[in-house]
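Hi everyone,

Forwarding the result from last night's run.
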Amino acid sequence: MKRIFTLLLLTLASVSLMADVVEKTYYFNNPKVNTKGMQQTISFNTTMPNGKAGEPVLPYQALNLLLPPGHEAVRISFEGYDETLLPGYFKLIPAQFSRPLSDPGIPVIIENEEVFRSMEAYPVEAVGHLSTQFMNGFGFAQSVFTPVKYIPAKGEITYYKKVVIRIETRETTKGRNALQNISSSETVRKNCLRTAQNPELVDSYPVRRTSSTDYQILIITPQSFTTQIEALAQLYLPRGMKTQITTTQFIESNMSGIDMPEKIRNYIIQQYQQHNIEHVVLGGDVEYVAYRGFYCHVQSSSVYEDNDIPSDLYYSALDGNWNTNGNNLWGEIGEDDLLPEISVGRMSFSNSTELAAMLNKTTRYQNQPILGELRNPLLAGENLYYNPDTWGSDYLELLLGTHSDNGYTTTGIPDNHNIVKLYDEISTWSASDLMNTINSGRNFIHHVGHANDSYVMKLSNWDITNANFSGVNGITHNFPVVYTHGCICGAFDVNDCIAEKMVSIENFASVFVGNSRYGWFNEGQTEGPSAHMHREFVDAMFTDSLNRAGRAHTESKIETAPWVNAPGQWEEGALRWCFYDCNVLGDPAMAIWTNEPISIATSYPASIATGTAQFEVTVTTGDEPAKGLTAALLRNGILYGTGITNMNGVATVVIDPLITEPGDAQLVISGYNCLPTYYPVSFVAGESPYVVYHSHTLIDVTGNNNGQPDFGETISLSITLQNLGLGEAQNVTATISSTDPYVTITDEVENYGTIEAGGLASVENGFAFQISDQVPDNHIISFTLTAVSNETWLSGFTITTFAPVIEAGEALVDDGAGNGIPDPGEMFNLNIELINSGHCLSLPVTATLTCSSSYINGTEWLAGPVSIDLLSSQEVLFENIQASAQTPIGTPISFLLSLSQGNPSSVILEQEYIFVIGQVSEDFESGDFSKHPWVNGGSAAWTTSQTDPFEGSYCAKSGLISDNQSTSLSVNYEVLASDSIRFCYKVSSEPGYDFLRFYVDNIKQGEWSGIYGWNYIAFPVTAGNHTFKWAYEKDISVSGGTDAAWIDNIIFPPVDLNTGIGQPANFFADMVVYPNPASGIITINTGIQTSSTLRLSITDLTGKSIYLRNTVALSGIFNVDISWLKPGIYFISISDNNTIKTRKLIIE
């Protein structure tokens, strides 16, 4: 007997609580036709050209719609109005693949002839991939759509002048969890108003109250560098920014996570949610502060793939975990977070000397800039490609002034700046030319050209010396900022890449922005993945006044995000690649000069009474209000308050904590292109009262009486007030309020009478509020307390509320055979674990299990009700489920678990479980490879062997090969649902040189070398078409052991065995269904030419018939609209009186 391993598939939960619809109308007029040779492109003012490689380039409109708080987008609909014919005959340009800047190959122009000969309207779907992205707690629906319809064979184009987009939304657990990242900072609010195409929804989001414990900059570094890097904290304190330094040792010891990068990220999330941080400095090279390697796949003229792209975006974008399916391919499509919350930069030093150089650069650059050259950019462009000619200068010109090329508008470097251009297009330049130009004083270097890890801007590693860049030492000329499209030059996982050399020597670059892997461009165009983010970076600095290096970088990604997912249900991947691999090396909080410093005049109170809560400052420049500057109040090295000047130049500086002792302080004004300017302030004794919130207690006797605020409870609140002032406060009245959607205040006002100076006063049960039963667990509710006497004082406090978080865990089969697998004809029970990961006891939960498969003996089973304690779990049992004896082996059966609670009952969670009846396995007991469609590859074929199998009589053994050869065994299957593949392996080889390797779709999942006995291993597999390959691969010399590898007892995920559900034995190969996969109209070529009536049926994976139709097709060809089908796998059968034919159909 073979040992059998349990196979269980658990799919993701889908929670549906509340629904809504977001609607937006777009208008398109005055299409522009651009002709290039015999081909054209069509554009509108707000559209960007895009398309699948080889297919027509169409104008696409980006969609960025704010969702209701806590919601995700689940469906998108498109309605076009006023369809208008565009006069003329059009042959639209076919889209081409993006290319790495380091690719030396000759471009191959591709064109999908089938599409361009088609009489069908293109594209089939006007809208692209719909995704939900969260930014600082605000949810955005992102997609693209085209208003254009194109019939290629006729050369006809029509467009809709009006398009209405409707987004169906649902409140989800993910959406509610995202609200924990809510930020109400002025920067975030402005960003949401600027990003959202429906900014009116911004006000529907809860407001997060600021706290005196908030800080802006988190530095993560080893303990040995904390004293030295303290200088960075002191640099930003006068600029109104507090800093916390945390050691990597503390994070490693105190945070949870599967590895150090996850621990670091979890700590950053914690500090963001608790203290509203804005910037993270990763203080150290990768040996000190670990990086996360992302996965990306790009279909260019060949396939480019990397699963270790160094990306500090992992620490910047804080929603989700970037590895949802657990396969360690971080950042796969659908696992991403494309809207980062905070800015991140890596000061990639390896020792204190390099750190000292970096600290000196960011300090001198910001505090002591060399004046008269802060408007001196350098643009360096190389030849990128011939035929078609593609020049870096074409991309760089779009950084100057205002451009709306390629469907988006950016305003960059003003034309009146002292711009120097080194363009190969005009005259070939050399490394010496570049060094001489930089040493003459250039504050920002923009580069488009070729590179690798030791070469960029025609400079090699050996060129990066203090002597070669003696002019840019921060004394003669400023340390410049560098931004490049070049490939791999920012690969900080290499020791040391050229970018790290630039920022770590005493002279030259203060900050470097560039790629850790490939940069990408489109030959013959001015739009490309790297160029898009570069334009948005410059626009962020000059238009949005976001000139801190990390913040401009973050903004460039936010503005680019809608285009990362493809216009169709495909994605080339190049923009995603750049999105991942473009990083900031240097101080992310460093403010980049975009002009010479402004001169300011400040009006402020030189003397302030102790106990004063706030005061106003007015700042002007050239007699005009100075907007967006920071006013900071410092005393004895402590930051007591900040304010930001409004459009009138007025800032309100809120003092927290209050200053109650007389003495001297400093007011510091700084900001965008403004050097810190210091003003003296004196605090003098005052006699005014100042009443604020001090503390509170609460009781929940009408709820579960556990002393904590839980979902659905009515809370009585006792609040203590404190008079921090120096005078008595009389007839004090206090009112509490909140804008949080999860709280209703039922008793908001209380009279406190007289509170003496420095005294406390409280009223027992003076206030009350009701908590929504939909409140998320660990949700922080912010309250404002308004105290009124002769004056009015505002203060605030928060209360953390708790709720159960119910999830469905593992489902285990309790069956007669005891193998944990439901077999044909077998009666079994299902034990499903219900988990409460929340911090509150749940209401009673009733569990319902349903199944629509005709192979299962029932349709519904009940369990419960059960109440689940906080942070615990409980099993529910569903008994006497039986699979029909006629169920084909390998048939996946879907069960839907529904959890409901309340009176009246409502569904709180639905989760699908899919079990495979029997087991799709390979034990090689046939003595050959006939059980599955195995394919041998390499220099020798695998064989079956009876020598020491894992169990039974046979196993598979690698073919006999020589040095520098390989032998592989592979099989391709359509995986019906996400699960895992499991197998036993054994290897006997030269250790460290000859390997047994396992691949899924040619991506290595594991490798083993040396001498191993039998081992068992499993790897996750997603749904879809996959090739599983085992290969024994040898290097150029030497053998070891038996020089072979063995595998046995493979257990596949649920796969289509092509003998499936409802499929008759007389399966014919001449019936064609296309396109397949499909999402709209399919064409069926039955191969049956008859005037008889044909019967068409479509069945799902359960064997249930969901569509029947009788039709006559004289040619044997007809169309069927399947747009109503949900994504999944189906079977189409066509029959007449004599023949039945069946084909599998995949719906996207």
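Residues 214 and 275 are 4 Å apart (CA to CA).

Cheers,
N.
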